[in-house]
Design goal:
Length: 91
């Protein structure tokens, strides 16, 4: 299991577009992936759960990844959450 602190840098926080892209990215991995903010621990593969998080720029999130591909998943999600803008093209 990997647990990492990540500071959210999206200028408008986790609004609809970055949340949808985050869920798509998380869903590519077999590992269990959770985002924790204060007392909320949300499955990062759940669009409804992630939309309920309501995170804003500058907040410290905890990324929790557990599974066979946890290293790759953790690296990809940390990189994604550390961006300041979301590309319109999902690579």
């Amino acid at each position: 299991m990997i647990s990492k602190a990540v500071t959210l840098k999206f200028k408008n926080g986790l609004e609809a577009r970055p949340t949808a892209l985050l869920v798509q990215l998380a869903s590519k991995f077999d590992s269990q992936i959770f985002i924790k903010l204060m007392d909320k621990k949300i499955n990062a593969k759940s669009i409804m759960g992630m939309m309920s998080l309501g995170s804003i720029k500058g907040e410290q999130l905890e990324l929790i990844v557990d599974g066979e591909d946890e290293e790759d998943a953790s690296a990809a999600l940390c990189e994604f959450l550390s961006k300041e803008e979301v590309s319109l093209v999902n690579n």
